[in-house]
Amino acid sequence: MAAFLVRRLSINVLVFFLITIAIFALVHKTPGDPIAMQIPADQLNSSSAEFIAQKRAELGLDQSLPVQYWHWLTNALQGNLGVSLLNGRPVTEVLGERIGPTVELMGVGLLISLLIAFPLGILAARRRNSWLDYGATVVSLGSVSIPVFFVALIVIYVFTLKFQWFPSSGISDPTNPSLLNTLHHLVLPAVILGFGNSGPFMRYVRSSMITELGADYVRTANAKGAPPTRVVLRHAFRNSLIPVLTVIAANLPQLLAGAVVIEQVFAWPGMGQLAVSAVNQHDYSVIVGFALLIAILVLVSNLLADVLYTVVDPRVRLR
Amino acid sequence: MSDGMLATDRSYAESVNNGPLLRVDGLSVDFHTEDGVVHAVSDVSLNVHAGQIVAVVGESGSGKTVTAMSVLRLLPKSAEVMADAIAFRGTDLQAMSPAELRKVRGGPVGMIFQDPMTALNPVMTVGAQVAEAVLLHQRKPDKKAAWARAVELLRLVGVPDPAQRVKQYPHEFSGGMRQRAMIAMAIANDPDLIIADEPTTALDVTIQAQVLALLKKAQAETGAATILITHDLGVVAELADAVVVMYAGRVVETGGVQELFANPRHPYTKGLLASLPRMDVEVDQLDPIPGNPPNMADPPAGCAFHPRCPLARARCETERPLLRDVGAGRRSACHFSEELA
């Protein structure tokens, strides 16, 4: 296990460096200039051009890309991701205060998607080709094919405007920032995020359960006189988890992508919202910092999938 | 003791006095597939008396496994099982509710499956699986007692160091050891009937003999009647009291093992015996039965064996022979069985 982790981590470190090069180059090669962006177009003249050049020199943007990258990398390795080009605050600080709300949204969203996917997938597998199975298929197709922002707008119209049951903006009421109030604000975005991700999960749970329910050991359990719930949950379900866990872990970045859109719609003060405004304003260092976090998330979730394998499947020994 | 137990005891006593332990009467099993209905088993009847070992013999696809699985309703939903009676200790298993049937499964009727590599749950320890067989039939579930019994059972079936090996997973067991664990599960609740579906087919030849000896021992110690599904006539000669020969989903011959081996009354049985290597008679070469078993989606008309039969004539192509008494408690389904006498 330890040897496996060391080897996988060293591969991941190499991949990570390649990713940073790609991110850095792509972001800095996007058209547009972060300094010029902040000056109204009608005020652009020779003196402002001088100002821009001066600012660029201050921020090191006039140097060649490899040199800029080298500066960024040596700082990044020491935990310094630079400062926001907009307001001069450290990127780690800007990102740091946004991680909490995003993790909250993603965590609850994931939980909801699993609470939809597991019962529905197991039931659909047990009653294959029944109306329940077809219904579950329709629901899962809907969750995949209807865009999140569209669902969000409908939900806001119904539950915020019509019934006024749930708020649709922000993380909590500034005058009453209690846990209950935060949870109240969390309901709509988390349910939409969860629903949007439940479709693929449900399909995988269903097909994996169908395979396992037809396995010989299930017949053995039946021949021992085990009741159906025990056969399904204790025998088939644990085996069906093996492929499903991989899918869930591999889907974590997808979940974050969904969160980015939802944060935008619900004015949720998370990383997604930050990333969108950073892109709009060419705030290079924040974009690179955000992309870096996503890269880490992808690498960690793949590693997590491998480690989870050993937990659910005693046959797998990581070497 | 509860009334339920008394009732079973009474029916048990009746079965000993009045009839067979297991009576299967007129069993037919259809599979509904995309290519139409396949009659996997047609009109099969067999009796198993207390303590008796009955071998069901036939090639792959002859319906012997399907017959065995229908007894405890272990076939997939695509199978349609019809029978005049599947009576165990005088009670029709078909009429039982699922809950009642679960008391029979793994209790008075134990099952052993063909492939121990896939018949055990890969993510549960062997001990947990054996203990589960005990636990499910305890009147008051007692996990500790079930585990102790699991260790005891594994010792009984010859798994070395059972106290340690209960904690291992199936993949840490060899094929032979896994089949021993399967046997331990089947005998966990002191069954009256063991249904063993090709228990040695998936094992190495050297291991087969050991597992057979164990089956024999388990049968002798528990006194359980056994249905032994096999295509290995050597195994039949070694263990069985009575034989049921199946071909294309039907019973073609039944009889005591000695009479049937000495003097087969159906050309298919005769062909099976001729294709077996023998130590006591010198033969130049083995005589396999020509041709292949029929496609069960489209079986031949008349006698299903006629395309491969040395005795076949015009009548066999149109008229299916019925299973009839041919003397000495034996039955054969051949128009010309007298010619073999």
From TrEMBL, chain A:
Residues 99-305 form the ABC transmembrane type-1 domain. It is found in: Cell membrane. It holds the Pfam family BPD_transp_1. The chain crosses the membrane at residues 9-27, 105-125, 137-159, 179-199, 240-266, 286-312. Its main location: membrane. PROSITE patterns: ABC_TM1. Keywords: Cell membrane, Membrane, Transmembrane, Transmembrane helix, Transport. It is a multi-pass membrane protein. Belongs to the binding-protein-dependent transport system permease family. This is Peptide ABC transporter. It comes from Asanoa siamensis.
